[in-house]
Amino acid sequence: MSSIYIDESLILHNLTPGNKEEVLRSMAQNLHEKGYVKSSFIDAVAEREEQYATGLPTNGPSVAIPHTDKEHVNQKALSLAILNQPVEFGVMGDAELTTSVEIVFMLAMDSEHSQLSILQKLMGIFQNEQELYYFLNEKDNTKLMNRMKELLKGDE
């Protein structure tokens, strides 16, 4: 039973992307440079987002949870991006609608069971407006990493 990996280098602040594809590619490239995903992950996550939108409106800042198939993953990891300005993502379940996303949780998962488990925990976070504002406003990557680990504790 291995945990999902997250460290300070996977938390990106002050991203000012022009669009969602720039967000996805920046995050995926960072995961690739750190060795967590194969180079194929970069295109695959962008393509999957076009087919299956991952934007989620919340009572706080909107979020997105982009991910793709396990064959593009070397080691499961989570990357977090806090955007300087909101970027439009298609809404999960209805890509014709969009939501202005401020926080992106990119998943690199090596099994479907662990992906489902992480998604369930993330949904709990997304329902807590106070937690979302914490992620949006905290500038210390170590504190963000520790908070994320605490919230995901007990996951495989």
TrEMBL record:
Gene3D superfamilies: Mannitol-specific EII, Chain A. Residues 4-151 form the PTS EIIA type-2 domain. The keyword Cell membrane does not apply. Keywords: Sugar transport, Transport. Transmembrane segments: none annotated. InterPro entries: PTrfase/Anion_transptr, PTS_EIIA_type-2_dom, PTS_SugarTrans_NitroReg. Pfam families: PTS_EIIA_2. It comes from the Bacteria. This is PTS sugar transporter subunit IIA. It comes from Pontibacillus yanchengensis Y32.
